[in-house]
Amino acid sequence: MNMKPRVLIGSPICQKPEILRMFFYSLEKLDSQMASIHYAFVDDNTQALSSKMLRAFTDRFPDRSVIFPGETERQPYICDENTHYWNQDLIRKVAEYKNRIIDYAKRQHFDALFLIDSDLLLQPDTLEVLLNSQKDIVSEIFWTSWQPNALPAPQVWLSDQYTQYEHAPNEQLSAQEKLVRQMAFYSKLRVPGLYEVGGLGACTLIRRSALDAGVDFCPIKNVSFWGEDRHFCIRAAALGFSLYVDTHRPAFHVYRESDYTEAANWMKKVYGAAPVRTVTPSIPIKRASARERPKITLSMIVRNEADKYLIQALSKHREYIDEAVIINDGSTDHTVEICHELLKGIPLYMTHNETSPFLNEVALRKQQWQETIRRNPEWILNMDADEVFEDGFAEGVRELLVRERGDVCCFRLYDMWTDTHYREDSYWRAHEVYRPFLLRYRPDHHYSWKEQPLHCGRFPNNIFELPSFLSRYRVKHLGWSSQEIRHEKYERYKRLDPSGLYGWKEQYESILDPQPRLIAWSE
């Protein structure tokens, strides 16, 4: 008769009671048909209720659980709606706690150790999936917005501290290429599978073979990387173990109190129920009026942007928008997938054109406008897929909209000819004029358009009948910053406007100037 493998679930715990209640509920739902499950915890709690809940959980499994005491001098671990605050002493302490659990697993001859952070919720068959992987070290994936409104990122990486894109030794990559490769890595991890990675943590199954070989969380003296998981992963690789992440059963990370509602909904979907919340939220609940927090709707048209600047643009925009309306104008690449990936967690309304009206820009802009106002927007941010604001806009835009009294906000647009320089000469002076990018929608205003097939404007042509104001923030137009794209646009303008009827023929011809006057961009 085959014996079930003995698996030790281990976790150092310093946790808020509400999150701990969800964590224990999740552990109770973990399928144990494939394994004999035991528990080892380190009680580092600073709240008496959390310690009481921990004892109550282990009391249910007296022969299969152990609690180790934490350090007597307990340094507070601070978490808020922004992030979690770590210092070197906290990292040292957690590493020692995890090593204590590893030592216990080895002494008690467990077949595997499943180390899991106490703010994670697991799908019931997670342990079964990890055991069936037959890997010595494997994590289950989870995704976290490490900063508010940031793109959710996985807890695994490919190299170094937290590098999440492929690169060859000594390979020089632009910021855009790094983003493209990072998004490719993220997209791969969204597909259920088992993937080799360079680093992992927080939700990791470690087989007896790796434990006996000497993996642990001790700091490596000649490595300066921050965080105990880096030292664990480097040591494991040096001992000859490959690291893997499974993506079949993503865990849920309860990173902030504001995640509680989503966590409860996730639990109801996965388990059929969720524990009742009994603690009053510590976050002060204040409903902001529209005047205090203006709603921003991103409006954009995309067409085959996957290998251009869409990733960079949406990564910036998601920091300050409340929703997005995007017209997919017949893309045949991965543009749509990128939009959904980068705007995950933000309401996204996409319209797909099977047949593109691209040769008649005003028809396309009218469609974009109608789909946007259908969402009853407050402020419309109309950006092309190759336009981004300079640093600081994300932090200042809402104050800008609250402070100013107008309805049309205008900015200067800089045509970037490289990653670091913009063009300025007699043909390229767009940055000397303020242009509208943000518009407060007034439903009672009658809007009209410049009826021409090219260069018709992104907004209706009579918006300046409304009061306007200027912003000091600048817009970077990235759509000229590669030789390939410049050639592509040059050919397009020659084809669509050969006589310069809708634009400026001399400017078209200057696109391929081999020695344009460039000026360094500075933030």
UniProtKB/TrEMBL annotation:
Entry keyword set: Transferase
UniProt GO MF annotations: transferase activity
Occurrences of domain Glycosyltransferase 2-like (ranges): 300-428
Pfam families in alphabetical order: Glycos_transf_2 (PF00535)
Membrane-spanning parts: none
Keyword Transferase: yes
Keyword Transferase set for record: yes
Protein name: Glycosyltransferase
Native source organism of the sequence: Brevibacillus nitrificans
Lineage: Bacteria, Bacillati, Bacillota, Bacilli, Bacillales
